[in-house]
């Protein structure tokens, strides 16, 4: 049966990185009879330029219908002045919300060949393998009221609302515990229960979910600020971290930077399994942004985008062997000293976007 | 004129660390005729044990009347189960709110003698000197509604509200710009304007305040998640960082950990200058917590508490020379290789809390 992929390359280096994934898909279709069917749409600034919105309803419908969405990156200085509602990020946020992609998986792994590139001492990051499970459709990102009110007298008031319901915390905790079972069986839940009521509820619900269904998994709780500290101090103490949308945004970026492999890190955003088919809606995207400063130059690192496709093979199509192969090809190419400019090191060979894609394909 | 200090040692290692500050104050009173008058109260778990609240109204009144408050630390497993309203942290939060201490200054400096203790590569942190200016009386810490609602059906809803008014952002931006002028004249403002309306307002008001009164200072804006990354990647790019209460909590902890000097870092929380006297209400506290695991053993590092007193001399009493001297004494003692257990390194001499205090006093 055909596997329908909807590509949203977006802005900046998104299209270049996506080009390398297209090559891999073409190869899999021809040499391995994989039967991927591709369609493509616009998101972010490029959608705004074409349609005046950050994603059109037509593309949104295609994303909803696809087996998986591959997303590049959005944003750039060109669109800094556009209205809040149609800013590039709004396209990504609408995809997450409308597709109900509540579970964002962000692996922070340190490729051995790149340990020296971390700003941390190599012995602290060598072999690092953390999975951050971030809640993605709730919290302060989407809670209402969310507005700026004019109070008169030159005073305005900006309001955002953090809201979490029991079921939202339960389902993301469930994902974290399930994934921990396939790893080192340890979950650390992070919130600010000493200051936030949503943090108090988060802590309670994670604790109850654990007790009810996952008591075989080791569970720890940490305040989110202490968690940020511990990530910097001794990141290898963590296996799976589960946290809310905003803390997840901050903590996963810090964790990604620790690895020295920022341009290499993928992410998966998953919905709930469909009641009938068991299939999850899913979107895969690199953790890096649109990097407008190097866009169009053919020098962007496509590895995060390719690794995102590997996650897609794994989580959307259960093509575990293929995903493993692709991830191994990435590691091999790095071991051979082939590097894009962002991860260049002494004694390595610097290549552009397409050469990197070709090298991985060859592996 | 007598200088009235109100001491709130709190829980855990707070009282031990405060003991060393008492010694320094006694010395200043006797040898330097400094005329500090001391009073002492209870806060956190120890206040809860005595009065059933995290700070009593009587102690609150003393804090309001004092020239400055010295605060130790609060919390510990003993009070994990107490009701939310009277948990140890509530005492600290009430002090901040009732004294209107809207400006929290958190220097993240790297003591040269301790650069090797950082988890970052030494060359990235040697000479590091960042000042984080965190808004402390607004945002999600205090906004209403802040509650857990029972929705029935086993579902609860946790709600917190982030609120910022123009004047709140203006005054904290003003503090950041003023302080930048005494340093490298550069401010980086951090928010999530791509997701939060309060972030949009924050960005606007900081920009306008800059234009109106501080255009001689260099101003930069960064998304808070990117800011967390950049702190880990290349912390020396920053001079003054200004950010909201919650981002400030996270980012200042990450920054503190970077320095390798966590047990050494002080903070100052300041109110607005009084219209008549020009005096600011102020509270000084170490960045580290109550460390219940090592409390009562005489091994805690008192440096952060002593450095907090140095900030007190500087900001509340304009005793700049005395503050400089005290800070230099700390650096000298570290240079001599005298260390408490938390910062112990090869070839150094390990001492306890009181010996460390004595060594600094001697200097
Ligand atoms: C682009 C932005 C809206 C987004 C977020 O804040 O979630 C990004 O930072 C991320 O982490 O995916
Ligand atoms: C103890 C706690 C309430 C406090 C905070 O979150 O502000 C602490 O983490 C801090 O940074 O001073």
TrEMBL record, chains A, B:
It catalyses: (2R,3S)-3-isopropylmalate + NAD(+) = 4-methyl-2-oxopentanoate + CO2 + NADH. Its cofactor is Mn(2+); Mg(2+). One of its GO terms (molecular function) is NAD binding. SMART domains: Iso_dh. The record marks 141, 192 as: Important for catalysis. It is an enzyme of class 1 (oxidoreductase). Its EC number is 1.1.1.85. Substrate binds at residues 96, 106, 134, 225. Keywords: Amino-acid biosynthesis, Branched-chain amino acid biosynthesis, Cytoplasm, Leucine biosynthesis, Magnesium, Manganese, Metal-binding, NAD, Oxidoreductase. Binds 1 Mg(2+) or Mn(2+) ion per subunit. Signal peptide: none annotated. GO terms for biological process: L-leucine biosynthetic process. Catalyzes the oxidation of 3-carboxy-2-hydroxy-4-methylpentanoate (3-isopropylmalate) to 3-carboxy-4-methyl-2-oxopentanoate. The product decarboxylates to 4-methyl-2 oxopentanoate. Homodimer. This is 3-isopropylmalate dehydrogenase. It comes from Neorhizobium alkalisoli.
